[in-house]
Amino acid sequence: MSYCQAGETARVTFPDDSTGNFDGPIDIDCQDGLLLPERINVDIYLYYKFRTFYGTQNPKQFYDTERSTQTSSYAGYSAYTPVLGSRFRSEGESTVFEILYFATSQATQPTWFPYASVSSSYQQFLSCNITAIKKKYPPDKTLVIQYAELLENGKLGSSRWILTIPHYNKPKEFKLKMPDYSKGDYEAIKELNDNSKIIVNAASETECIKVINACLQHVPEKYTLGSKPPKVGKREKVYKKCKVTAVRSHFFLTGQKDLIPTWSKSLREDK
Question: Taking the model in full, what pTM does it have?
Fold first, then answer.
């Protein structure tokens, strides 16, 4: 299978962690079973910097922007080692930075995935660097909480969202009390020291932290020791704005390996 176009450069990382740059196009062929023992589910962390030009004077004025992202920021993306390379690619009026890796544990061919993009007409990449590749540890004892829209009359709307608490440490008999909160444009990600995450979308940074702190009350301390504070950012016009309330919980004893919950429980009293 061919990767990169003529005139592009592919950066390939080999199993011994050495790297090499190759003029495109390049061919990569993986035989069935090759490297399967090395397939590890990972998060790929990327830091990139780009320059934006503006104004009509010559030379043009500009400002620089720095950003970071990771695999789990992309819904549906799943990364498995080995991570084979990266490239810049032209796509219409954009320049895209992509990373080449296996999308599943059984894939025999790698796939290019986009991680950053700039407009070629007035922006340019200054740098794109993979800063870390961390093994993902599917948490055991996971609690999935279903939230519902709470209408002004106290009844429930039709919209539903889920909130996941990894390493949940309470029995079924425990009377779990999760706060109501307002959803909105802010997203907070709390990464535990085993790389598992609590992700909350709310109307403000304060609301995000409130919900994350409520979740952390039910996570063993060994998973929070040494972990960093939540990362909070704003994503305008992405999420619905409304008040929500917890209505039901589903507990999975072995986390992501379970398809059917070990137990389920209502969290809302009859109104």
Answer: 0.53
